[in-house]
Amino acid sequence: MGRVTAPNPVIPVPPADLPRTLGELRAAGHRYRTVKQELRDNLIARMRTGADRFPGIVGYEDTVLPEVERALLAGHDLVLLGERGQGKTRLIRSLAALLDEWTPVIAGSVLNEHPLHPLTPASRARVAEAGDDLPVGWLHRSMRYGEKLATPDTSVGDLIGDVDPIRIAEGRTLGDPETIHFGLVPRTNRGIFAVNELPDLAERIQVALLNVLEERDIQVRGYQLRLPLDLLLVASANPEDYTNRGRIITPLKDRFGAEIRTHYPVELELELALIRQEADLVAEVPEHVLEVLARFARTVRESPSVDPRSGVSARFAIAAAETVAAAALRRAALLAADSASRSGSGSGPGDEAVRAEAAVARVGDAVSVTSTLRGKVEFESGEEGREVEILAHLLRTATAETFRARLAGLDLSGFTDLVAEGTVIETGELVGSADLLRQVGTVPGLAKVLDRLGMGDAPTPAEAAAGVEFVLEGLHLTRRLGKDVTDSGRTVYGGRG
């Protein structure tokens, strides 16, 4: 699983030593293979060498990927079923990496026809006429992947093609393939074509794919064009859409060789690995904060208040991590500006001022996530108006679980003693690290806490403040400290009065 990224738009330049004519291609000993043979051979080669078969895919090593590999080895077209945010599109796009880096094509062919296996009458005529002098082009594997998001307005012309009236006006006949403006599927010939959210495709449009999957030919406007397409067809679908909002017609389901179910990360560590890999963090986010967010996402998925049929995307935890990092960066910038203002400099924050408060996320920064990310969660009917309240409760649950998992067995009496005499500790979004640490002072057991949190022997003040705030919040959630939120948004920890 992972974040979906668009294919690289830069077209690579073929190496100069590749054959440039059909004669040179034959002399080089090139052998024609279908796309599925190519995928099978390259997958087996990676298996034998131990190379990574699906780079960037996290959490599927023992479940989904073996099924995908068996489908590819069998030469099956496949459909991936899973809730949103399970990395289906990312996995589909990764299949293109199993294609040969470069493959020969008849120069100028719209259908990427192989010089040793021309499809259209025009290309066969060119090969017969030019012989070994036929110009050969080279297609990079990044250009052999096609994709269409299924929408209700998708037409047969978009996918398969339609008659071009201009070419008819030029004198060509309807039975001539040259009169056809080919759609996305035939233009991805000798590659991989993906249909995302297949159930959203109108049933009459799904019918147009039947011949593509079985007979491997296409029909346009009632004219059957015997063009044996060479491609791997892959589709994705949400099981909820599969059964309710739309459906995959039975004949089309029957033509897919493999139906593979995807899932969310099974283990907490896999959820964390996915966040680390995919989140674009603008500030440091300590491991214990990432763990809180990972547990939070898992807790939301398991909540009875959340619609399980919709799922909670992996993008939820990724966006949460990016949000708390942004909150830390905002705090650092505002504190630097405030410091500059109080010093009377009259200047902006500047690099030196920004560095005065390092941008390190704290557990309190996660509070904003409950409001900014509620749109990513589908709640059960009857929970209207309670969305933020529910998410806030689940966030507290995740924080308490992380606190117990990370700091179980440690003597934290030094922290509770801080407020034993009525003293309070104030923190919050705009409370600087130095201010928080000054209030705490020297706390017995702090070094062991920071070590447990993975901050090493010499944590920065901002890291130490993040650790202190985590302990204070954990002690509050386990009913050993009191907590109050002021009108200004600051958090005050004190004794349980």
Which band does the percent of strand residues land in? 5-15%
Can you tell me the CATH class of the largest domain?
Alpha Beta
So what's the overall shape?
elongated
Spatially, the strands of the biggest sheet line up as 4-7-10-1-11
Q: Structural class, please? A: alpha/beta
- What's the pLDDT, averaged over the residues? 88
Head-to-tail CA distance between termini = 47 Å
| CATH level 3 topology of the largest domain | Rossmann fold
Helix content: 40-55%
Look at the structure and name the CATH superfamily of the largest domain.
Answer: P-loop containing nucleotide triphosphate hydrolases
Q: Radius of gyration from the CA trace?
A: 30 Å
Blueprint (SSEs and pairs):
Layout: H1 22-27, H2 35-49, H3 64-74, E1 78-81, H4 88-94, E2 102-106, H5 121-130, E3 136-140, E4 145-149, H6 156-159, E5 161-163, H7 165-169, E6 180-182, H8 184-187, E7 191-196, H9 203-206, H10 210-213, E8 218-220, E9 223-225, E10 231-237, H11 239-245, H12 250-255, E11 258-261, H13 268-278, H14 287-302, H15 314-342, H16 350-356, H17 369-372, H18 387-407, H19 413-417, E12 425-427, H20 433-440, H21 446-452, H22 461-477, E13 482-485, E14 491-494
